[in-house]
Amino acid sequence: MTHAYDTEYLDDAMRNLGEAVDYAVNACRLKADDFMGMFIVSSLAVQFEKGVPRVISGMSGTELVWETLQQSGVRKKMPEPQIDYEYSPAYWCGWILAYYQWYTGRSFKDILSCISMEEIEKLYPALHESPEDKFIDVVNRRISNRKLPTKLQTLRKTAGYSQRELSERSGVNLRTLQQYESRAKDMNKAAGRILSALARTLGCSMEDLLEYEMDELEGK
């Protein structure tokens, strides 16, 4: 398992995202999913994922919210910064989400496309006193059980192609294409010429077509 950034910043990252979600929800009266949606669209999410010290350690949770809203074009009078934070459900959601992102290395966008902040909060009663690894196991099982479409299928549908159209345009055998979309074949082991042809046709990078390894998702 390759973590997103060094452990020396992990405590700060967990605390700050916890404070940010708590402040957004309990002070700014935003829904956690709405705030995280703005956070993901902003430049801050990618910097957070990369472990940029200014973002995960140099900014407070309140400052993360302020800059997120500013980048999102939200103009409103902001409540005073919170000084003390209780371990609220909202705080825990941000806190444990930061840990999960660090542990798996997955983007916030990918994580929250699989499980919403609302769903994470529903796990609070059962998991907030449990080890962090328990949360990882539960979320990974949910992701596996939902049988998410492959990235290839998502990109194909976004481009507006049927499987046959993509096959004809890319030159990749239709049956082979169907096997990659159904995971009968592993896209991560596809020949470079296939990845290149599909990426060129879909207007994406070859890396965009690769799936997460199950060992990575399982945290092994």
From TrEMBL:
Parts of the chain that traverse the membrane: none
Pfam families: HTH_3
Top-level taxon of the source organism: Bacteria
Domain HTH cro/C1-type, residue spans: 152-209
CDD domains hit by this protein: HTH_XRE
Name of this chain's protein: Helix-turn-helix transcriptional regulator
